[in-house]
Specification:
Blueprint: E1 2-8, E2 15-22, E3 31-36
Antiparallel strand pairs: 1-2, 2-3
């Protein structure tokens, strides 16, 4: 399973990064990678 989140500055529409979530199966850990710009 994979998902992506657009991280926004609190209370604004300003994007400060992207996080990617990857889980190989229901019993495995979730791996989180990404970049924050602020």
């Amino acid at each position: 399973m994979e998902a992506t989140a657009d991280v926004r500055l609190h209370g604004t529409s300003t994007s400060i990064g992207i996080l990617n979530f990857v889980q190989n199966d229901a019993n495995s850990s979730v791996r989180i990678t990404g970049t924050l710009t602020s």
